[in-house]
Every structure is written in C-alpha cells, then in structure tokens.
Design goal:
homodimer, alpha/beta, five-stranded parallel sheet, 21 strands
C-alpha cells in the first residue's frame, strides 16, 4: 500500500461510518480484532514491515488505527458512540501482539479516544474456543489490564455462559460489560432471566460451536441447546413461547435422549399430557453417555435444562427402566406416539468416506464407541479408525490413551476430526492427541482387520500397509434403532381403531446426526406433530426481487 | 428411506419437472451424474444396500431412476424433451459402477426412454479434470459404447477445447453433441467462431479450473483466458466487443506477461496506438516461464491467443529486448504508461502461513522457483518448502524429481497444494508426487536453513525436528517488481508537462496473484484507463428487495 492506497482506505472507512450513522446505528465500531482487518495487520509487527511512518515503532503501527478512530468520530458526531475492538493478544508469544507488550501499549496510547473498549484475543480460533478446550472467562488474564489503563467502559468476551461467572468479572472490576454471542444464541432471553431471578431457566450454552459451523458452511445456523435458532422468522418459532395445544391427545414419547427429552418438554409446555418412557435408569440417552468422554462434560446441560423444565410440569410423567414394545406402546392408550430410540454405532466398518463393509469386523477384538462408553477397555495397541470425522474418534482415542493404551488413530481424511475445522477446534484436537502420544495415520482407509494386525490403504496411492494392533475401535457411522418403529408399522395397521392417531420417529432413530439435529427434531415434532410431508416448502423463504442497481 | 419416503421423493421430483415446464424450459433433465444425486446413489451397489425391490440386481437399482424418468415424461408432455444425465463409470474399478459393467447395463435397460443421453464419469473430480491430469476428450473410452446401445442422441463432455477434437468425436460416431462448459466460459463465442471458420480467434480453454475454484469458494467465477467472465452484467463487459477509444492517447505497455499482453491487445482492439516493450526476447512473461514446468504446457494458450490477436493489429507494435527505465519511458512520448513488470519469488521464507523471514535463507544453497525456471539444478537431497499452496510447489518438486534428485516437499498445510482442493486437483497432485517418490512432510513450517540440514517446526505441537538436505527451494510468496513504477513516481513529478497523462501499474507488479488475476487486471486497465479509485462501488450490484414469502 502506498500513501494513495492508505488515503483511499481512510476515505472508504470514513464513508462506511457516515453510512452507518445515516442508517441509524447508535454505535459504530472501528475494528481490529480477530486477525481479520487491515487495522490489526497494521498494528502487528509480524505483518507490518513498513519502513515509513506507518511501520516500525508501536506509535507508527498505531497511526492508521488512530486516524480511523478520529475520522469515524468526526463523521458520526457526538450522538453516536465510537467503539473499538482490539485483539490485545494473538496467543503467538513473542511472534505476535501480547497483552504484556504491544497490546498494552496500544491501549495506553489510545486510552481515552474511543467511547468503549471491546477487547479480546486473536485469531478467531482463539477468541471462540469451545468448552472442550477452554473454561468460561478464559480471556480474563489477557484483558484484565485494560480497565487500569482507560477510564472508558470495557467489554470483553470469553465463553461466558453462567450468570455467576459474569457477575464475578464485573464485581472484581475485570470488565464493565459482558459480551456473549454464543450464550445469547443458546438463550436469547438470558438477560431477562437473570433480571427475573430465574437462573434455572437459562438454557446455558454448552460451548460446542455448532453455531460457528453453520457460519463456516454457509448453512442456517443451528444451536444444540436452542432448536428455534434460525427458525424465528421462517417458521415463526419463538425461543420461549409455543402455542397452547390444539387437541386433547395424550402423548407417549419413547426414549429420553436429546430428541425425546426436547419433544416431551415442548409437548409439555404446550399443555399436552405426556408420558416419557425411558428403557434405562438414566435420562439423557447419548448425551449422558457421551458426557463421560474426555472434554464433553458441559454437554450434560442439554439433558439437565430439559429435565429441570420437565420436573416443573405436572402434565409430563417420566417412567424410567421402561423398555417398550409395540404391545406395551398400544396399551398406554396414547393417541400420539413419538419414537425416539436413538442410534447405534455400526460395527461393520461402513463409514462416510469408505462406504463398504470391511472384512474382519466380525472379530471379537473389534469395538465401537458404544462399547467404550459402556466401559469396555480394549487391549492395546489399539487402532481407532475414524471415518466419522467429528469429535467421537478423537475423544475415544483420548479415553483409551488415558487408560495407558498405545493408540493409533487412522482416518481417511488428511487431518484428525476434519469436521472440527468448522467448529474452530481442529488444530487443538490434533495437537492434544499428538501431545498425548497418540500416533496419527492420516489419509488411510481400512482394508481388513486380523487378530493382531490391520491392513490399511493409502487414499492417494492405494498402497496397502499393515499395522500391528491387538484391538480396533470403529468410529464410522450410526444405524438408527428403528426396531420399535418398524414393529409399530406392522402392529398399528392391524390395530387401527384403538385411538392411536399417529406415530412418528424423531432424532437419531429417524436420521442419525448431531445432538443439535436430534434436539431440533424433537422440538419440531412437538410444534407440528401432525405435519405431513407435502410438496410445499414447510417454511417461509426470503423471496427476493432484483431491483435496478 | 422407507416406501413412504420414496413416494415423497417421486412426488417432489414430479413437481420439480412440472414447475420447470411451467417456467418455460425446453429440456428437463433427470440427473444421475457426478455422485451427487439420490438417483445415482440408488444405482450404485456400493451405496444402495437395500434388500427390497429397489436394491440388489441392476434392474432393481434402476427402478427409481426409471420411475422418475417416466414420471417426468408424464409431467412435461411431448413438447419438452426429457434428458438423462448418467455417470457410466465412477473410476472406482470393481468398487463402483463401470462402463463395462453396470454402467452399460443401465443404458441398455433404459435405452430408448429418454430423448437425450448425457453421459459422463463420476465424481466431479473425475468429470472435470484439469489439463495437468487429462487430455482433451479423455472420457471417450468410458462413454463410446452408448451410441451402440441407443438410437437416441448422445452428448458427452471431457475437457473439449479444440474444434478438431470435437469434430473428430462426432465424425467417428463417439458422440452426437459436444458438451463443453469450461471452453464456453473461456470463449462464449466458440461455436460462432467455428461456424465462421476463424478457429485462430478462439480463446481456447487452458484447463486450469480457476473457474471451478470460484464455484467452490463462493466467489465470482474467474477465467484465466476470459477476463470478462462474471463481469458481463455488473460491469457491462462483452466477451468480444469493447468500446472504441475515446481519446487519441498513445499507450506504452511495459512488460509482455499476461497482464501486459492483455492490456496491449485490448487497447489495440479499442483502436489506440500501442507500443508494447518487453525486456527479454520472449513474450508471455511468467506464462512462458511456467509452461516449461511439468503439466502446464497448455497454459501457453494465454500467451498465444494474445500474441496472435496482436499480430493482426497494425496499431500495436511489439518491441522485444527493450528494457525500459523512467527516462526511456518518458522519451517514448506516450501519454499513457502501463507498467506490467511482474513479480519475483521471495527468497527470504516469508510466506502465506508463516509471515516471517527465515534465518539461513541468505545461504547459497537456497533457490526460488525463478531460479529453477531459469535452469538452476540444485544438488539433492532438496527440500521444497511450499508456503504458497497452489501449483508451484508441486510442479517444482516434480521437475527436480525428474532430474533424479531426492525431494522432500514440506508444507505448513495438512496436504500438498492445498488450494488445488478448489480446482478439484488436490488428490491427483498428491498422488502424483507420492508415486514419483517425493517424500511429503505436511503440517511443518520452516525454522532455519543450514549448510546440510533444515530445521522444521510441527504446526500442531511446535516440536522442532531436522531434515538433512543439500538445497532448499522456497516457494512462499511473490514480491512485485515495482522499481520502474517507483522511479516514474519520482521522475514524472519533475516532468509534469511532458504530455504524460497517466501511468498505472497492473498485474503482478501491482498485486502478485494468479495468471487469471493478471489477465483481468490488464483487461480492466484497457477498459477504463483513467478510472480513479472512488468511494463508489465500481460495478452494478444485484440489489435485492425482500418480498413476502
């Protein structure tokens, strides 16, 4: 960028502020967060290698940032606030901006210039860490100096989910305002619930970053805790309110996993009489099982919020240790039966990349994630074959490694847990496994499993090689537990006038997927239990017309 | 999918055909190409493991495809054609559909049902191969049986770019129609030019798949040969026509690389008097140098089409071996000077992932792609450090391997030539390197270079390791050759009344990038040589209004 380029940039920046003011905004940000803006790149000595008055010393590197803040101020006047977002630490140590070094100096130089300091760490992978890798409020040590340097109010972020943590940082003078995007996706009414002193009603963010994956994949944003997310306008789903029941049906929900719990809760909220039958002693289904795996404990909130709500509903009755079959289902006399019996990990090697049954998968030294979650402890060396590519392969590997096993993670993808690229976790997942001493064999698929060796094939060259191992864990794909549903299809036809209006299947027993998808499926069922599949798109579309540009 | 799901699918498919007919289309496709549709998944024994009448035998697997073809026919009637697209070979050998097996049987079963057979190979990586990996018409051996099995017309694809190849396949009875998407992106007037018997005017597709990368990256589609691509509506750029000059300026273009050649050609087409000064004996710049590297020879068409067009223009004069400086530029008396002096590969290790100068890069055993293209033959073992991530690292490695060197390709990305994922080439690039015996060290950055060893750092764990090597080739980033431009900035100020109206820089000497970007930059300069950077967006936007959905 020569001086004319810089002048152009400042001019465009000015204009953007002017347009924002005209559009009625109350706060205009000058943005140098996340490793994504030119302003941060000018601040960074790693990127800014200029030899003129915009490079070199901190004062010089701050110059463009300062000019833009001043020019925005000049454009928007005194009735619109000028906020600054700044990454005060890049988590790169000596190679980047640190809060003990340049980060602090930048805030000192500009201390009173903005109306609000919004401070965080950079890049986005660091700023939006998941619960698997960071505690609530983890940015505190990086940003806590800011209030001592400026008299202006300071806002920060850092995976705040509980009111206690938020209040603690305010009371201790770390921040003046709490920034919380993901928690507000999980529960847009979080501030109201704090104000109304009903913290138990907060649908607390589990920190899984499924929301972020929607952003990165250009798909509607989903939330594991809040199934109404992205459906507010197009389906008219309010995050808190749901229509009162429109029939006197008695509802039976079979299975208390994430789909069944959400269905029972939402039917209950609508005022239906609901029986929730769970085969085991524990509620939560896969959520309860998976939260025993390393790093996933916060996910229990998916269960806990729903069981907490259900406990307050006299019209929802929970039956534990109640294994159902078609006959006992019909005996309940319920008019609407919702089958939410979950899914089971495949044991035959058929996965996402390699859609084929693998020879040797019938051997006794072959395990699935269900086995591990049920307490199996395979002998090492263990191969974990991951053809699922989300979190399961990596957490199973961690679990086995924690048992002292020698572990080799094999995957047809080039990286471990490839899908976690979209949740911003991939580099941390792979680093954690490598640091735990887990060997990674990427870009290999499974050819066959033997008694003490497994054959692999390179996805690039098709070359076959062999790895010695005593056990294999297959993390490939799930099969729906649709036995009860299939039995109902048979039985209910023969039993047409028993008052049963409809039976449906939801969640993983219909289509195995993420926990977010299961919760969504349960919620949708309760919103529209009698919705038939039709030719029509079942939600409003943003129909656009092209106007003259 | 149970039977109700299948019924729903057929119903939606019918409706889609009906809507297409209503919208006025003349041909409706039933699509089973590319490994992307449910119909192909039902056809594939690898994916379709059903035990009912939709699975098992070929007849069963064809059932849904047949039903959909018949139902589309029923919906659209006889005034609208029903075409079928079918991947007759998945290039998976025994594991998939092959043209000698199921592929042929499917065509035999459905032979006379559609009005048009559109046949190709699957998946998209195989169907849209680049010139680096496939010859023109490479799908012929897979699809040539089709005409012998049906009396209906047959269309196929396969990177057809030259009229000769197209005519050959028609004359030999391989196909009835030629399908060519990429060649029509490179030259939408290709059919007209064949009809008008001016094949030398065809802007022949080079087969680089930059167009596909735009699709995969959700960015406007670009074309290396056709800079007007995606600009037809928003900038009003016609692929063939360009406004006649609006001033009597004499234009000097310095540098005959892709940007300079396109600028000279387009200025010439507008009617300007143009001098094109090239420092060396050869036209084409980086295009000419890069086409000497393995697999890139078709790229010479970028140069050849432009030099061919320029040769026909009496108003464009080419001066070879004419190294220019600020004084000689001003001596030409041209009113408009376009600097297109290209870029040079960096020799200091500063790249895309690792934005830092690397110690030891000043050693005499360190090379750049420019050195290799200029004929340097470093002693092995050689490390090729690729922090550029497009094609250069891989073709340099291939070149060195072909010289018999032991080669290690090191890259901070998890895969070789990561950007080529977007051009559908990544798996083939990596396979070719591995099969050539090139060792790949992924996920490692460069710490320092010594006399006979290089230190690397794991991008996940930061662990430092060492690899013995005699030479290192740095493929990291380019620096603009902006010396002449900088001199003009100085000189022209002192020489303001010499008739020089403007000087600009284009292509790599302004912003190093792809060849497509350089060609675009040259074209844009000729369309609007006096366009100033302004606050306004310099093209029409698709402004949309939300209407009630």
């Amino acid at each position: 960028m020569d001086k004319r380029d810089i002048a152009s940039f400042r001019q465009w920046h000015r204009r953007a502020a002017r347009l924002a003011k005209q559009a009625g905004f109350d706060i205009v940000y000058v943005y140098a967060g996340h490793d994504i803006t030119l302003l941060l790149e000018f601040l960074s000595p790693r990127i800014n290698t200029r030899s003129d008055e915009y490079g070199g010393s901190v004062e010089n590197r701050v110059r463009l940032f300062r000019e833009c803040i001043e020019e925005v101020r000049d454009e928007v006047g005194e009735t619109c606030a000028v906020a600054v977002r700044l990454a005060v630490d890049e988590l790169l140590g000596d190679k980047g901006i640190t809060s003990a070094g340049d980060g602090r100096e930048i805030v000192e130089i500009l201390a009173e210039l903005p109306d609000l300091w919004d401070v965080n760490v950079s890049d986005w992978n660091n700023d939006s860490m998941t619960s698997r890798f960071a505690e609530e409020g983890y940015q505190e040590p990086y940003v806590d100096f800011v209030k001592s340097v400026t008299s202006k109010p300071v806002v920060g972020v850092g995976r705040f989910t509980s009111p206690d943590t938020m209040v603690s940082q305010i009371k201790r003078g770390v921040l003046d305002f709490i920034g919380a995007a993901r928690p507000a996706i999980a529960d847009p009414f979080l501030p109201n619930k704090i104000e109304q002193n009903r913290p138990e009603d907060i649908r607390e963010c589990i920190g899984c970053n499924i929301c972020v994956s929607g952003n990165n994949l250009f798909t509607p944003m989903r939330c594991t805790q809040n199934p109404t997310r992205s459906e507010e306008w197009r389906r008219g789903w309010h995050p808190e309110r749901i229509p009162v029941k429109d029939a006197d049906d008695h509802v039976l929900v079979v299975g208390a996993g994430p789909a069944g719990l959400e269905a029972a809760r939402a039917f209950g909220q609508r005022g239906y009489d609901v029986m929730l039958a769970e085969a085991t002693r524990d509620l939560g289904g896969r959520v309860t099982r998976e939260t025993t795996l390393p790093g996933l404990s916060t996910w229990a909130r998916v269960r806990d919020w729903r069981t907490g709500q259900i406990e307050k509903m006299p019209n929802v009755v929970v039956y534990r240790e109640s294994q159902m079959n078609a006959a006992t289902v019909l005996e309940t006399g319920c008019n609407l039966v919702v089958v939410a019996t979950g899914a089971t990990w495949r044991r035959d090697g058929f996965g996402r990349t390699d859609r084929a049954v693998v020879p040797g998968t019938d051997r006794s030294n072959v395990y699935t994630p269900d086995d591990i979650m049920n307490g199996a402890e395979p002998e090492g060396p263990v191969i974990v074959f991951d053809d699922d590519h989300y979190y399961m392969g990596s957490v199973i590997s961690e679990r086995l490694r924690a048992l002292g096993r020698e572990v080799v993670l094999v995957t047809p993808e080039a990286v471990v847990s490839a899908f976690t690229t979209y949740t911003l976790e991939q580099s941390r997942v792979q680093a954690r496994l490598m640091e735990a001493g887990i060997r990674i064999v990427a870009s290999h698929s499974l050819v066959s499993i033997g008694a003490d060796a497994t054959e692999l094939r390179c996805t690039y060259t098709d070359r076959v090689s062999s790895i010695a191992c005593t056990s294999v864990v297959l993390v490939t794909a799930l099969t729906a537990n649709d036995g009860l549903y299939a039995d109902l299809v048979q039985t209910a036809v023969a039993d047409d006038d028993d008052g049963l209006r409809r039976f449906v299947r939801i969640g993983d027993c219909y289509a195995p997927g993420t926990i977010a998808a299961a919760v969504w499926s349960g919620h949708r069922c309760a919103r529209a239990p009698f919705a038939e599949i039709t030719d029509e798109v079942p939600f409003r579309l943003e129909r656009v017309e092209l106007v003259d540009g």
